[in-house]
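Is this the right way to post C-alpha cells for a design question? Let me know if I should format differently. Anyway, here goes:
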C-alpha cells in the first residue's frame, strides 16, 4: 500500500475515533506516526504541534496537513486532510438530519457524559507525553510555570484570555531569548578574538 493510502486510512481511523478535537488527537498522532510508523522523530513532532496550534484553523486539520505533506508531499497533505475531516462531516451531517430526536435519547446523553470524561483524560495524557518528550531546560520550565500560574489565576478570577495570546507572548519571549543568547555568543566570540 502506498504511503498516500496509508495516510488516508490512518487519518480516517484517527478522525473517526477521536472525541474532543485536535488536543485529544495529539496522543494518537504521536503513537501512530512517531512510535509505530517512525515517520517523524519526537522533536519534529513537538515542532509540528507548535505549528499546528499557532497557525489559523483547527489543530486536527493543521496536523493532518503537516504530517501528510512531510510524508508524501502535496498528495499526502490532501489525502490526510480529507481523511481526518470525512468522519466529522458525515457524523455531523447525519446528526443534523435528526438532531432533535437524537438529543432526546437518554442513552445519547449518558454517552456524551462518558465521552466528556474521556476527553479530559486524552488531553491530559497528550500534555504529559509532550512534557516528557520535551527538553527540560530552564526556559521551558519557566514558560510552563508562568503560563500555568496565569491560567490558574485567570480561572480562579473567571477572567477569560484566549489561548492565542499565550501563544503570541510565548513566541515573542522565545524569539527574544534566542536573540539574547545569539548576541551573548557573538560578544564572547569577539572578546575571545580580541584577547588573542
Amino acid at each position: 500500500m502506498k504511503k498516500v493510502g496509508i495516510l488516508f486510512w490512518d487519518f480516517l481511523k484517527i478522525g473517526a475515533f477521536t472525541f474532543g478535537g485536535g488536543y485529544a488527537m495529539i496522543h494518537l498522532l504521536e503513537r501512530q506516526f512517531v512510535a509505530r510508523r517512525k515517520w517523524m522523530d519526537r522533536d519534529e513532532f513537538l515542532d509540528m504541534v507548535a505549528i499546528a496550534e499557532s497557525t489559523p484553523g483547527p489543530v486536527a486539520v493543521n496536523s493532518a496537513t503537516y504530517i501528510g505533506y512531510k510524508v508524501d508531499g502535496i498528495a499526502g497533505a490532501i489525502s490526510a486532510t480529507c481523511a481526518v475531516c470525512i468522519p466529522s462531516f458525515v457524523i455531523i451531517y447525519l446528526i443534523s438530519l435528526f438532531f432533535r430526536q437524537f438529543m432526546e435519547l437518554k442513552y445519547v446523553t449518558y454517552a456524551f457524559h462518558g465521552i466528556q470524561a474521556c476527553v479530559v483524560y486524552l488531553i491530559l495524557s497528550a500534555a504529559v507525553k509532550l512534557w516528557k518528550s520535551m527538553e527540560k531546560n530552564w526556559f521551558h520550565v519557566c514558560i510552563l510555570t508562568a503560563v500555568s500560574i496565569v491560567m490558574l489565576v485567570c480561572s480562579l478570577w473567571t477572567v477569560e484570555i484566549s489561548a492565542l495570546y499565550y501563544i503570541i507572548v510565548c513566541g515573542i519571549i522565545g524569539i527574544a531569548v534566542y536573540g539574547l543568547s545569539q548576541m551573548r555568543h557573538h560578544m564572547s566570540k569577539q572578546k575571545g578574538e580580541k584577547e588573542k
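Format looks fine. Someone answered above. Worth noting: The two ends are 61 Å apart (CA to CA). The CA atoms of residues 35 and 177 lie 32 Å apart.
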